[in-house]
Write a structure and sequence with these properties.
The chain is mainly α and about 80 residues long. The chain is built from 2 helices and no strands.
Length: about 80
């Protein structure tokens, strides 16, 4: 049985067209979902909103940092290959 491995240099997934926007939209949707579920189950709206906002910013910052590092690594790799 073969396993897919994305961490090898020759099999890296291509960058999405809009990685920063896509990340922010995904985490924004998840934050809204957290608030909706909290309110639907009888939880506090304000508490859920604060939690969702904090997690949104932390997750988005982490994701953007990862995309920036990946872009930097690709630039370095291309420069080393003489492209």
């Amino acid at each position: 049985m073969k396993r897919l491995r994305w961490d090898t240099p020759d099999r890296t997934r291509p960058m999405p067209k809009h990685p920063y926007r896509d990340s922010a939209l995904l985490y924004g949707a998840l934050a809204v979902l957290v608030v909706v579920i909290a309110v639907a189950t009888g939880g506090g709206f304000v508490r859920a909103l604060v939690f969702a906002i904090v997690v949104f910013f932390v997750a988005t910052a982490w994701s953007w940092r990862s995309w920036r590092n990946r872009e930097r690594e690709e630039r370095i790799r291309k420069a080393e290959q003489g492209e």
